[in-house]
Specification:
Structural class: mainly alpha
Length: 332
């Protein structure tokens, strides 16, 4: 019995069991039979432990089960305890393997996420902010409290602020606003983003004010140019009306200023009417007075001009009659 190797216990023709049978047949004492059974039981247990040390759980359990079969009703408690230990070791080993596998999967996934984040942060835009935030959230869910998450969030915020500021400095306000609007939708209540949005809004307001100032200056310049080169044609007057309307539309001319400007326009028509009357060119004068009076109808000069026109027309009519009478006399 003591010379039997452990592997032979698992053979179908077990030498140890044959030796035990021979002892029984020879009428060995109970003490000898007990010693033999104990040696065989120890052999199965040691064989099981050998398999268990190699994490061969099935072979370990099979060794104990074989011992229970070969030695029925012998050391049942010990055999059962060994089976329970094998089961516990199997479970513990599987749990460890599972933890190691999960840890390895975690390491691989974190490395993949890190690469993806580097790529996305390298091409930061309004279109991929949501993707970046999702990647950071997944990273944090896998590795809570990771310093990498804090650093990556900082990189994201710094990148957003730098990109928006660069767009703002280049007066690309539309793209800057789109970037910050998207950023605040995915990363709300971040002070650095809120401050940059305020800076952008101020820059936009300043730009609008500069544009308005420039537009007003250009319109006033065009208006003064029209007034200084007045030919009082319908085309000229249409251009003049358009400039006045544009200035009113952008609130660059108050009612008082408009009234003053119209009072400056009216004398242009009065002076032209005077010139026409002095030259005896009366046909356009009535239209000039009508159009000119629409700019400043309360000016007293209109009455004077109408009187002058009436006198000139009467004089012209009298002259025409005299010429007609003279023509008739000459015909006689």
């Amino acid at each position: 019995l003591t010379a039997v190797n452990l592997p032979t216990l698992a053979q179908p023709d077990n030498p140890a069991i044959r030796s035990l049978e021979r002892l029984r047949n020879l009428g060995a004492s109970g003490e000898n039979l007990e010693q033999a059974r104990k040696l065989i039981a120890e052999g199965y247990i040691n064989l099981a432990r050998s398999h268990r040390a190699n994490a061969d759980w099935d072979a370990a359990a099979a060794s104990i089960i074989l011992g229970q079969q070969d030695l029925p009703d012998y050391q049942e408690v010990r055999f059962k305890r060994e089976l329970q230990q094998i089961s516990n070791s199997r479970i513990a080993s599987n749990q460890l393997a599972q933890r190691e596998r999960l840890e390895q999967e975690k390491v691989v996934r974190l490395a993949t996420l890190s690469e993806q984040l580097d790529t996305e942060l390298g091409s930061l835009s309004a279109a991929n902010i949501g993707t970046i935030v999702d990647l950071i959230d997944e990273y944090e869910a896998i590795d809570p409290g990771s310093a990498d998450v804090i650093l990556t969030r900082t990189r994201l915020l710094d990148g957003l602020v730098d990109a928006a500021a660069e767009l703002r400095r280049n007066t690309n306000y539309t793209e800057a606003d789109r970037l910050l609007t998207a950023a605040l939708r995915f990363v709300p209540n971040e002070l650095v983003l809120i401050n940059e949005k305020r800076s952008l809004n101020q820059a936009i307001e300043n730009s609008k004010q500069r544009q308005r100032t420039t537009e007003i200056a250009e319109l006033n310049s065009e208006l003064q140019n029209l007034l200084s080169t007045a030919d009082l044609s319908v085309t000229w007057e249409n251009q003049l009306t358009e400039k006045l309307q544009q200035l009113q539309n952008i609130n660059a001319m108050s009612d008082a200023q408009l009234k003053l400007t119209r009072e400056q326009i009216a004398p242009l028509f009065i002076n032209q009417a005077n010139s026409n009357i002095d030259a005896g060119e009366l046909s356009p004068v009535r239209d000039l007075l009508r159009r000119g009076s629409s700019y400043a109808p309360t000016l007293p000069q209109w009455s004077t001009q109408r009187d002058r026109l009436a006198a000139a027309e009467a004089e012209l009519a009298e002259r025409d009659l005299a010429e007609q009478r003279l023509a008739r006399l000459n015909g006689l």
